[in-house]
Amino acid sequence: MPDQGSIDPNSVKKAINVQAAQETAWRVFTEKMGTWWPLAVYKIGKANAIDAVIEPYQGGRWYEQTLPMSESVEYGPLAIGWTGSSLAIVAADSSGALDYWSQDGAGGWNQQTLPSAMTEAGFSSPAIALAGGTLVITAVGVSGNLYYWWRADTGEWNQQTVLSASEFDSVQSAIAWTGQNVVIAAVDTWNGALRYCWQADGTKPWHNQEVRVNLVNGAKQFLQPDIAWTGKAVVITVPDDFADIYAWSDSLWRVTSRRQSNWHQQTVYSIASP
Fold first, then answer.
1. Across the beta sheet with 226-229, what order do the strands follow?
2. Which CATH superfamily is 114-269 part of?
């Protein structure tokens, strides 16, 4: 049994037993979504949806199909999180908006479109986290700007710009909560650059700093980052285009101060390793 002190209080794990082999259950869940998802009630497009399709490969789309087999709404990257009382999903759609769903008490889903005061043709790399009871979301606009949303007690969403494209061309991002601060990792995938952002609360400005990067094996590009709080340190992980995986860590008091942090880089896995 795991040490109770090591369990993240914001995490959730739920299991459902079905009378089917694992391979069959996975195939039905991913390849036959229209057979179990209540499309008559929970859908995005205005037309009657007849199926929901998940394309089975990295970078694949998630979209609804309507008669006569047109793609009503396409879903780009998505993220799933826990609000403290229910599951939540955020996804970029083909209209250029960010859509947010949360479960109601009856097990159904409620949908909102996140407000955007910025002029963006679309978003990518959404991420979601619960920050001390406040739901927070980050996403990258097609312009390269990095945005942040937080939900007030009234249920209304507020938005800030964390990084502008003139400062740093964000392409992928991840968000986490340290118990004191909201923290974001942002990468420029094409230039192999990494930046760390933090905020004391929703009313203070964002601070950011460059994380020194040492790419190996001739790698030049980053893929999707991840960020987490271990209880003692902030850890950022990023894979590169050569299948290498890197990790950076630093203590909380350093990464949330205005001082230049002493990030420690490790190569977790290298394709060149035996």
1. 226-229, 233-239, 245-251, 264-269
2. YVTN repeat-like/Quinoprotein amine dehydrogenase (2.130.10.10)
Q: Where are the alpha helices (DSSP H) in the chain?
A: 22-31, 252-255
The domain spans of the chain are 114-269
Cα separation values, 33 from 26, 110, 195, Å: 10, 19, 37
Q: Please report the pLDDT score of residue 145 as a whole number.
A: 92
- DSSP per-residue letters across 103-131: E-TTS-EEEEE----S--S-EEEEEEEEE
Strand partners, 182: 177, 199
Query: Which run of H or E residues covers position 73?
Result: strand 70-82
| pLDDT score of 6 | 60
What pLDDT sits at residue 191? 80
| Strand blocks (E) in 104-229 | 109-113, 123-131, 134-141, 146-151, 157-163, 172-177, 182-188, 193-199, 207-211, 226-229
Cis peptide bond upstream of 9, omega within 30: no
Average pLDDT per consecutive 10 residues, the chain (274 residues; last block may be shorter): 59 78 86 82 70 80 65 74 85 83 77 79 89 90 91 86 89 90 89 86 76 86 89 90 89 49 85 64
> What is the pTM assigned to this prediction?
0.70
52 near 99, Cβ under 8 Å?
Answer: no
DSSP-based three-state secondary structure for 142: coil
